Structure formats: C-alpha cells, structure tokens
C-alpha cells in the first residue's frame, strides 16, 4: 500500500522503516531534508515539499502525519485542503487532544476528505517489536487502512475504538495510566533507597526479580532493569520529568466527567514538582521515559 509519512522524528522515522520492511511504498517528507534523505536511502521516495508529496501519491492519497500536538498539525491540515482532494485520507498518529480531532475532521470533511486519529504507543522499540495502535474515525477509513495497521502492529496490536476522536481518547487515558504506573515504581525504589537496606540492594537485580512471576511485573520494570544496569543509582541524570500533555488532558477529562482519578492527578502534579527538586523517584521516572521513548533527560550537575 502507498502512503506518505510526514514528520520523521523518533516515532515517524521508525514507523516509516517498519512499513518499508513490510512492503509498503512510503513517500517521505520532513521539515529538514536530512531525515528525508536518510529514509530515501532505505527505499522511500523523497519529497522536499508538501506539494511534491501530494504529486507523488496515487489517488486516493493516504497521508500519515507524526507531528507535535497543536499548531503544527493545524498548519499542515490547512495546506492539505489546497493540495489534497476528495476521498483522500489524512491520519494523525501524534499525541493529539481528541477534541481537536473532531474539529479537524469537520474541516477536512468540507473538502470531501477523511480524517483518522490513531494513538500510537511503542516508543523507540516499535520498529522491531511493533506499535500498539488505537484507531478512531470512520469505519470505512479503518477498513481501507487496515493493511497499514497490520504491518505496524504486533499480533492483536491494533483496535478500532470508534468514531472520530476515539483513538486519541483511548491513547490519552493509556498515557494517564502510564503516568501513575511510573510514579508508583519511582516511589517504590525511593523507599528502598531511603531504607537501612538501600546500600546493600542492587536495583537492577530487584527490578529483574519483580519481573519473575510477581504481580507488579511489566515492560516498564524491564526498562528499569536496563536503566539501573547502565547506572545503578541513576546519578548521571536529574529527576526532571517533563509533562508532554496527555496526563493533563486525562485529568481534565476526569474533572469534566466527575471521575475520581487521584493517582493520575497526583502523578501529574509530581511532574510539575520535579522541576523544582531532584529526588531518586523522579530520576527513576525520567530514566524510564528515556528507555521507552528516547525522551531527553537533564544531566546531573557535576560537582
């Protein structure tokens, strides 16, 4: 199947590579040409403008965008209304607020275009392991794009969640849960670190142990083991945990619908607090974000 991939960052680049490996035809576009050239060397067709991207695609065109939430998406959609045509499909695979999906779908519908929202989880490991896909939008769009979803996801790794916005809504809640899980792991390791037994414990071994039949085993704990293997006390990073938006949206949704979500809310508040103090629990959470998503960390001050 043919599609364009716009935005070749940590996620978009690897998703495009996985699609190429799966036999799909990818037209690559990125704001900076270096990444476009890089993907072209792996078999993609390079496009150096959105107009060139549109020209290279056969109708009905499929354009998948992997851009930061907010104005960048709106700016590209505005250009699409002049470059694409009726029956073309635009897929937003970034971390977008679901209410923005509904507004944007309406704009494209006026031009006869279809909008699909796809929440994507898998981080920098998705190239080899596959991506978990949470899909929203018209059913006919989901059916048309299913060969792409099958290639990107592992077995049973994609789900049609419902009408426009449903995919990003499910991904939003997914990330809110992620906030709470990482915070609990971070606090647990800090309790160990502050205890009389902290000096004698190797946290890599503890994380490994908890993944052997324990009810708290998870991929996050596997990543914790990897992080502790690199630096047993995580002393090279500061415990600054960035807030990328999804946790805020999840808490706002809980308030809007009157759902009690204290764990997720407090984990969000703790991310704000992490910018003021440096704790071991925050270093654990920062390290986990680096391991699964390649997110930047703040280096520790050298004394």
Q: Tell me the strand percentage band.
A: 5-15%
Q: Looking at the chains present, what oligomeric state does this protein adopt?
A: single chain
Q: Which sequence of strands runs across the widest sheet?
A: 3-2-1-4-5-6-7-8
Mean pLDDT: 94
List keywords for this structure.
303 residues, alpha/beta, eight-stranded mixed sheet, two-stranded antiparallel ribbon, globular
How would you characterize this protein structure?
- By secondary structure, the chain is of the alpha/beta class.
- The protein contains 13 helices and 10 strands.
- It has helices spanning 10-21, 33-40, 50-56, 71-83, 98-109, 126-129, 139-152, 166-194, 203-210, 219-230, 246-257, 262-274, 280-293, and strands at residues 2-6, 25-29, 45-46, 62-65, 89-92, 114-121, 132-136, 158-162, 237-238, 298-299.
- It has an 8-stranded mixed β-sheet with strand order 3-2-1-4-5-6-7-8, sandwiched between helices. A two-stranded antiparallel sheet has the order 9-10.
- β5 (89-92), α5 (98-109) and β6 form a beta-alpha-beta unit.
- The radius of gyration is 21 Å and the shape is globular.
- The protein starts with a strand and ends with a strand.
- 43% of the residues are buried.
- The model has no long low-confidence stretch (mean pLDDT 94).
């Amino acid at each position: 199947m043919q599609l364009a991939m716009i935005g070749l960052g940590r996620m978009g680049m690897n998703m495009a590579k996985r699609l190429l490996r799966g036999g799909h035809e990818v037209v690559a576009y990125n704001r900076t040409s270096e990444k476009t050239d890089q993907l072209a060397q792996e078999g993609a067709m390079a496009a150096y403008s959105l107009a060139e991207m549109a020209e290279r695609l056969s109708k009905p065109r499929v354009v998948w965008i992997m851009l930061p939430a907010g104005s960048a998406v709106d700016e590209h959609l505005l250009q699409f209304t002049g470059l694409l045509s009726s029956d073309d499909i635009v897929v937003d695979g970034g971390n977008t607020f679901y209410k923005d999906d509904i507004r944007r779908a309406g704009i494209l519908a006026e031009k006869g275009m279809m909008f699909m929202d796809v929440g994507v989880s898998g981080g920098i490991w998705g190239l080899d392991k596959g991506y978990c896909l949470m899909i929203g939008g018209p059913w006919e769009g989901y059916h048309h794009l299913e060969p792409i979803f099958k290639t990107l996801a592992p077995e049973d790794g994609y789900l049609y969640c419902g009408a426009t916005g449903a995919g990003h809504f499910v991904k939003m809640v997914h990330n809110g849960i992620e906030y709470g899980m990482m915070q609990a792991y971070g606090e647990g390791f800090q309790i160990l670190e502050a205890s009389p037994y902290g000096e004698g414990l190797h946290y890599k071994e503890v994380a490994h142990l908890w993944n052997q039949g324990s009810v708290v085993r998870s991929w996050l704990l596997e990543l914790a083991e990897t992080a502790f293997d690199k630096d047993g006390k995580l002393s090279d990073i500061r415990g600054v945990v960035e807030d990328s938006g999804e946790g805020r949206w999840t808490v706002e949704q809980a308030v809007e619908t009157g759902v009690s979500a204290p764990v997720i809310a407090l984990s969000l508040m703790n991310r704000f607090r992490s910018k003021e103090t440096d704790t071991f629990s925050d270093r654990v959470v920062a390290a986990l974000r680096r391991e699964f998503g390649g997110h930047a960390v703040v280096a520790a001050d050298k004394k």
